[in-house]
What does this fold into?
Amino acid sequence: MSEIKIGDTLVGDDHPCYVIAEIGINHNGNVSIAKKLVDAAVAAKCNAVKFQKRTIEIVYSAQELARPRESPFGSTNGDLKYGLEFSKEDFVEIDRHCKQNNITWFASCWDEPSVDFIAQFNVPCYKVASASLTDDGLLRHTRAKGRPILLSTGMSTLEQIDHAVDVLGKQDLVIMHSTSTYPALYEELNLRVIPMLRQRYGLPIGYSGHETGLSTSIACAAIGACMVERHITLDRAMWGSDQAASVEPQGFAHMVRDIRLVETALGDGVKRVVEREVPIMKKLRRVDTQGNGS
It folds into this structure.
């Protein structure tokens, strides 16, 4: 299987699982909350945090923006969408805070101007959201930036994934298995898709999860996922559409810890008697007539 490089970190087979804390829109339009989420990801020993960027008037129709929807920002869906978007000054502060805390950040960009906007921060990679997998123009525009791409595959058929891979090419590409329900039910996760995708594409395969628990995300590292992404929140009871499908700071730290323990436990696949077994073997095994343990 191939590998990619995100910043100074190699991602792929024979490398530690790359753990991403997706802040997404869980900052609720507040830079102070975003910085606290970055701090939580740093404390949990994540490799990176991820945001989202949209040009609202491109991504959503005027009719959709005018749709009634109550939120802290107003009474329409447009009020909500604009309220959740960060300005350049906000991202400058986020960029500064991430650099100060030595953690990588990047974003899912939902339209071409958003890709260009995020490019000014010299991010090491881009994420293509599941909703954008069939947007050939956006795929080509993102690829033109010459950075690694993480391709999320929720709500997509194999044929659609095949096409997206054809458009993007396999160079510096990670495919992320995902189920786009929030929160996802365990019977919807279908984690066995991860080794299938590895075999089908010969690429690093990651996992972007939206379930409520941690065990399945940890299991992904054991079955071949080179990357695990989960939404992070300060409190799952906070206002916001993604909070319930997110992981609180303590849970995130436990997940990263357990992924590292699983990686250690997997070993190298070579069967051997470990040194600490030798005295136990001598004590417990019955000795046969050749003097060998039976």
Observations:
- Residues 218 and 259 are 5 Å apart (CA to CA).
- The two ends are 40 Å apart (CA to CA).
